[in-house]
Amino acid sequence: MSKITNLFVQLIIVVALFQIIGCASTRVNPNKLPKDIKLSKGLEIPSDAALSIYIPANSLKSQFYLKYGGRVEPGNALKQALEAVSSKFFENSKLVGINKERKFGLLLDLEPEWDFKSGKTILKLKYRLYDTNMKLILEAEKEHKATISYQDPTGSFFNAATRSLQKMYVSILNKLKPTSSLYAAINDESSIPPEVLADLEKPVSSGTAFKINKDGELLTAAHVIRDCLVVKAQFEENIYPVSTKSSSDLLDIAVLKSDINSDKFLMFRKEDKLELGEKVTTVSYPLKGLLDASPNLTVGNVSSQKALRGSLGLYQFSAPIQPGSSGGAIVSENGEVIGIVSGTLNTKSLIEKGVVPQNINFALAPKVITKFLDKNDISYQRNTKKNKSKNNNTKALESTVQLTCYQ
Amino acid sequence: MKKIIAVLLLLHSSIAFADEVNDEAKSAKNEEEQVKLPIRYFSTVQEDELFTKIKSSKRFDNLSKEDLPGAPIALLVTLSSNNTAGGSAASLGSAIWAGSTLGLLPMVTNKDMVVRYEMMVNRKKIVDISFTENFTEAKNLYNAHNQTLDKDVLEWVLSTVPLFKKQLSQNSEFKNLEQEYVYYFES
Fold it and tell me: How many domains, in total, are found in chain B?
């Protein structure tokens, strides 16, 4: 009888332990502070100071897939935690960029970094706090480890983010005791210099663009500059800041403004037609960081007037391209723009199915490009002469720039 | 007096009927005006009922699972569960009890189910709509690995489709996308 009682007691203990583990892996309440995070006595929350928050777009979008755990979204977990925790401490807090006319009293620049150790998700949260005149008033780092739950893997990211943010806000409030009168919202978000927030030492991505008129306007693929806080163009030996004039995500096309002062630019063909099999040249700056900064010129032909089923405005070409070639010009034998490098076939998924595709790349057709330029009142010229010569390659090389994106 | 009430009732019912006719006509007109965007469909919900229900309106007539690999517009529907504080502890506890009774007792779980509709254009997210509902399920230990959705959960997932469509039709980024598609590819 005593053995049965012992077994029963052991079972109860095991159940209790599992319940404790179970509790550890559930999502924490962002509205409650744990015992080890304490606000100074007499401090009232939320603060009425207008807080703007900058966080790199890639940090809010990061996600990956586990073979048996489904989709894990550290970015979404961070966003949810940020929304819930920020409003608890600052009643008037918003992410930078939604409304550039919004006035701010404090600007919080966040730099999150994830790590994993011994079944824990770790968030190292570096932060810098500026006042309305962009004077740095605080710089520190907070960290929190959360147990990974295999039932809800995103939950551990949410928990680590929630606790790190709570530690950060409590530290800020205890040190500064911010109020709207102490940190008055004088300047609006448009006055924030992007270079202060962007990490200019680590480019997020790179791509290619080319000049289409004497005004220094550049044409590229929209995905090259997506979510960039700062975009810089390297032309010859100089670096130029560029900004977006107009773009379309549906077409994957963008026009950039720059101060590049050069008479060399590429013209479009007299008619927006493509010949099946016609020779094409691409000029681009692929594999930044691996290849030396020099333009790559590859040749091929228009291999099909159509692209993948369901694609819009794309055609197929065979000239080799690499990561970083996106946004580069497809140039005809006559030296005219007849497309923009858009992308390539996802070879990885096809190789897994036993198919090895070769030289299947896609470009945006000239008909759609010129329709976009006309719609947005962007000037360009059409070539009326026939001039097949080696100079056409030089012209393409002289009109192409390398783009680098920073967040 | 009775006659007056009867006339009023008749008048009211005829007005209501006229409204219904107007609503029906409006919705038929709206349906007619909807743009048929080519959209790739991905979902973690394996049940075909969801795909069929989304595809049932004209706006999603050109929605496809496999036939549009190059379409720049994609709809991703995911169903996930978030542990609840009490539910997680109860689940583990009931799993132990179920195990200790060799499956005689069922495993009880309590979770927040989240169905999320995300629309991407060339990988840029323009729409992100989600719905959450709490569910308590009792499962037999030997049947726990079964991946098919519980009937109640599936019914709830299907009930979110009209809500998603309504919110989508009011989304300004989606409206711009439709206009842009018409401008470049249908005019």
Answer: 1
List the structure tokens of A379: 């000037």
Residues carrying CATH 3.30.160, chain A: 24-194
The DSSP 8-state label assigned to residue A10 in this structure reads H
Helix (H, G, I), strand (E, B) or coil at A190: helix
Mean pLDDT of A145-170: 92
**CATH 3.10.690.10 assigned to A205-406:** no
Which CATH number covers residue B77?
Answer: 3.30.160
Range picked from A142-151, A330-339, B11-20 for highest mean pLDDT: A330-339
Q: Over 90: is that where the pLDDT of A231 sits?
A: yes
Residue (of A371, A368, A350) closest to A360 by Cα position:
A350
Please tell me if residue B145 touches chain A, with a CB cutoff of 8 Å: no
Average pLDDT over residues A401-407: 94
**How many whole angstroms separate alpha carbon A176 and alpha carbon A182?**
9
Do A21 and B92 make contact, defined as CB atoms within 8 angstroms? yes
Name every chain B residue with its beta carbon within 8 A of the beta carbon of A309.
67-70
Domain assignment of residue B150, yes or no: yes
More confident site: A205 or B101: A205
Minimum Cα–Cα distance from B83: chain A residue: A26
Tell me, what DSSP letter sits at residue A82?
A: H
CATH number for A24-194 (one of 3.40.50, 3.30.160, 1.20.1540, 3.30.70): it is: 3.30.160
Residue A143's identity, in one-letter code, is: E
Report residue A225 as tokens. 């500059």
Spans of chain B below 50 pLDDT: 7-20
Chain B residues inside the 8 Å CB shell of A25: 83, 88
CB-based contact A71 B38, cutoff 8 Å:
no
Q: What stretch(es) of chain A map to CATH 2.40.10.120?
A: 205-406
C-beta atoms of A152 and B81 within 8 A: yes
Q: Which of B116, B184, B185, B186 best probes binding to A when mutated, by most A CB atoms within 10 angstroms?
A: B184
- Coil, helix or strand at residue B151: helix
Which residues of chain A make contact with B89, given a CB cutoff of 8 A?
19-20, 22-23, 26
Least confident of A229-238, A252-261, A386-395, B17-26: B17-26
B97 lies within 8 A of chain A by CB: yes
Calculate the CA A177 to chain-centre distance: 34
A 10 A CB-CB count for A6 gives 10
First to last CA, chain A: 69
Task: Please say whether the beta carbons of A297 and A286 come within 8 A.
Answer: no
Residue A291: per-residue pLDDT = 59
What ipTM was predicted for this assembly?
A: 0.82
